[in-house]
Amino acid sequence: MSDLALAQLRPARDASLSAFKAMLLRDVAVLRANLASFILRTVMQPLLFVFVFTYVFPKIGQGIGGAQGEATFSSLLVPGVVAIACIFQGIQAVMIPLVQEFGYTREIEDRVMAPLPVWGVAVEKITAGALQGLLAAVIVFPLATFIPATPVHLNISWPELLTFLPLATVLGATLGLAIGTRVKPQQVTLVFSVVVIPVTFLGATYYPWASLDPIPWLKWAVLINPLVYMSESFRAALTPQLPHMPIGAIYLAMIGFIALLGWVGIDGFQKRVTT
Amino acid sequence: MADNNEVIVTSGLTKVFPTGLKAVDALDLSVSSGEIFGLLGPNGAGKTTTVGMLTSRVIPTSGSASIAGVDVIADSTIVKQLIGVVPQTNTLDRSLTVFENLFFHGRYYGMRSSEARVAAEETLDRFKLRDRATADVNELSGGMAQRLMIARSILHRPQVLFLDEPTAGLDPQSRLALWDILGSLHESGQTIFMTTHYMEEADRLCDRVAIMDHGKILALDTPAALKRSMEADTQVRVSVEGDLDGLAGHLKNFEGVSESQVLDGAVLITLRGRAGMIPKLVDYVEVGGFALNDLSVSEPTLETVFIKLTGKELRD
User: Of A46, A188, B49, B163, which residue has the fewest beta carbons closer than 10 angstroms?
Assistant: First the structure.
């Protein structure tokens, strides 16, 4: 071979690790370039929610929160809003780009051809989505804490927070991957109507799961919703004085859902890029 | 051609899709270092599936494929370092600029930040993309996007560059520009494996061409040899003063002539083994007592070869 200096071959493990790291750096660069829109899309929904329900309603004398009362409502909303921020990143940072990349642009090709196993690209998607979920949670948390007109009572339990937060963000990202690899671009709006909206409304976000006691069928039915465990986990970590599921059950369910959705997502990803 | 310089080797490579379609049927190929190898065939011939199997994207049903001695399926992470791929569609990273597309590609292949930056800068100059460095890739014209795709695919200095229909959908000017790029890559020693359904492209660029249809290789050789392999090698048009029928009869007896007929005021003959025959043909015409007015030679194109082999036209 003449004047072409060929690249040095590196062992599969080294090559995979550096490709994985480079893809994360690429995602960080894209996030940095689009930081303003990231913040807007992250903040808008929880901001309005917290503002209307915990600021406007108490000010205009419209009660919300049922038997627990207004004061408790603003406290129990914090975990729910943080959980929604995490799960929305799974949708916005993982699912939507993936649907576009698979459906229209095929731009995933360049990353799939990088020297790492195809499942490694899928795991990178989960990792980047989880990191954005973490960032979203950090941004949303002060909003939910400081905007309400009625005082928010937090009793942060750090061991739970530091373990539940990564689990919740990874769970949100695996959900995004699982849906993103199995949905066609023209079905995205349908996904919002039949998945995203029911998941958020029935995700124990605006009420503790235990308070569904009067509606037993619903109480059991919502257990298939991964957001329930994310909300309950933040409730156990941020407002443990309020009712929440047993901590062991939350860990078990979150790990179980991550394994299930992770498998569905990675398998779906591999099937989409190799035949 | 087969020697220890082989870069791409396949043996009995077969892909049967779940639908039962046998897209590639027991393919045996060997491509040498520095070669431009073309896979020529109509849409649906199995060209893209072949490239897919050689680049780890399509899992073969049976058979094997290796790049530089490394098994494509068993060691795909190694093979991916050895190859650059330009697929049929624009797969540029729409979230990044032109420069960033190159820079992060280098990073994916393990270059340090400074190395990737230098490689990306050099590539911008080499591929005349310097003034578009900070442009959004969505703003690039089709030809420019294709140039960037090729630039990106060789940034990590792969041993083999795969191009799947590289000029499909490009305007004639961009196509010519791309041929120049591929020509200069070839001169620098780059091994290239490309698919195409443009005869002229295969004829002009490729050292060897495999004609493929229904998943099988029908013929494989240099473009010239493929054309020579046709029964009628060269068509010669001879015009003389006077008796054309007499000339046609006279030329039938010339060595290597398989056909001789009067057509449009001249005699058209088909001649095998062109080299060195034309001066003898001129003498032969004059020996027969004919005054030669004009003589023109036209070689058959790959198109005639293809039609002969498959019984159909190549273009869609």
Answer: A188
Q: Whole-angstrom Cα distance, residue B61 to residue B87?
A: 22
User: Which of A217, A180, A221 minimizes the C-alpha distance to A198?
Assistant: A221
Residues B157, A6: C-beta atoms closer than 8 Å:
yes
- Residue A67, pLDDT score: 46
pLDDT at A64: 63
Contact B190 A117 (CB under 8 A): no
pLDDT tens digits for B148-187? Answer: 999 999 999 999 999 999 888 888 888 888 899 899 999 9
Question: What tokens does A244 get?
Answer: 């929440």
Tokens at A16, concatenated? 């995979």
Cα–Cα distance measured from residue A23 to residue B316, given in angstroms and rounded to the nearest whole number? 39
What Cα–Cα distance (Å) separates residue B199 from each residue in A172, B135, B187, B207, B315? Answer: 51, 34, 21, 13, 9
Beta partners for B196? B40
In sequence order, what E strands does chain B have?
A: 6-16, 22-32, 36-40, 62-67, 70-71, 83-86, 160-164, 191-196, 208-213, 216-221, 234-240, 257-263, 266-271, 292-298
pTM: 0.83
* Residue A38 · residue A132 · CB < 8 Å: yes
Residue of A119, A95, A107, A111 whose CA lies nearest to A177: A95
Q: Which residues of chain B have pLDDT under 50?
A: 1-2, 232, 316
A243: exposed, middle or buried (Cβ count in 10 Å: 0-12, 13-18, 19+): middle
Say if the Cβ atoms of A4 and B100 lie within 8 Å. no
DSSP letter at B168 equals T
Task: Please tell me if residue B59 touches chain A, with a CB cutoff of 8 Å.
Answer: yes
Single-letter code of the amino acid located at B184 = S
Q: Cβ of A114 and B85 within 8 Å?
A: no
Instruction: Name every chain B residue with its beta carbon within 8 A of the beta carbon of A16.
Output: 77
Question: In the 8-state DSSP scheme, what is residue A119?
Answer: H
Structure tokens at A76: 């129990």
* B contacts of A273 (beta carbons < 8 Å): 57
Burial class (CB within 10 angstroms; exposed 0-12, middle 13-18, buried 19+) of A145? middle
Task: Locate A236 and state its tokens.
Answer: 């156990």
A184 contacts: CB under 8 Å, gap ≥ 6: A99, A103
How many angstroms separate the CA atoms of B65 and B81, rounded?
A: 16
Q: Check CB contact of B301 with chain A, cutoff 8 Å.
A: no
The CA distance from B139 to B128, in Å, is 16
Alpha helices (runs of H) in chain A, residue ranges in sequence order:
12-33, 35-51, 57-60, 69-89, 96-100, 108-112, 118-146, 158-180, 188-191, 197-201, 216-221, 226-238, 247-273
Residues of chain A with pLDDT under 70: 1-8, 63-71
Task: Note whether ipTM > 0.90 here.
Answer: no
CB count within 10 Å of CB A5 equals: 7
Q: Which tens digits make up the pLDDT trace of A156-202?
A: 899 999 999 999 999 999 999 999 998 888 888 898 888 888 998 89
Cβ neighbours of residue A189 closer than 8 Å, sequence gap 6 or more = none
For residue B63, give the nearest of B50, B45, B76, B75 by alpha carbon.
B50
